[in-house]
Amino acid sequence: MSNAKVLPLLAPEVAAEPCCPPLDERPLSAEEAERAAKMFKALGDPVRLRLFSAVASHEGGEACVCDISDVGVSQPTVSHHLKKLKEAGLLSSERRGTWVYYRVEPAVIAAMGQLLTRAAAA
């Protein structure tokens, strides 16, 4: 007789809704353009882009603010830029003790990629 246990299947992860269709699929609606512009505007600042990249590329997919704050600006300015990235929906955060950990949701990168994929392949 086997001691094997049957494990329950986990529900598949629900894919996040992309912000917009690929640029060459159809013209964006006003609402879609607003959402996309908010993301790209947040990434239009070099310091924010560096912070976003530091979080996205950090081991484990999340980074403590203490690990990413060396971007050539003061700590209050780093906090301001991280706040802007959160407001744009590009980062989420969690406080653990005295530190705040930031993560880029995989769906965010997937949605941004989908927006540009077809246009880039053309």
What does this molecule look like?
Residues 28-122 form the HTH arsR-type domain. GO terms for molecular function: DNA binding; DNA-binding transcription factor activity. Keywords: DNA-binding, Transcription, Transcription regulation. The protein is mostly helical. It has one domain (30-121): Arc Repressor Mutant, subunit A (Orthogonal Bundle), CATH 1.10.10. Helix content is 48%, strand content 11%. It contains five helices and three strands. It has helices at 30-43, 46-57, 65-68, 75-87, 106-121; strands at residues 62-64, 92-96, 99-103. It has a three-stranded antiparallel beta sheet with strand order 1-3-2. A hairpin with a 2-residue loop joins strand 2 and strand 3 (99-103). Helix 2 (46-57) crosses helix 4 (75-87). It is elongated. Mean pLDDT is 79; it is low at 4-17.
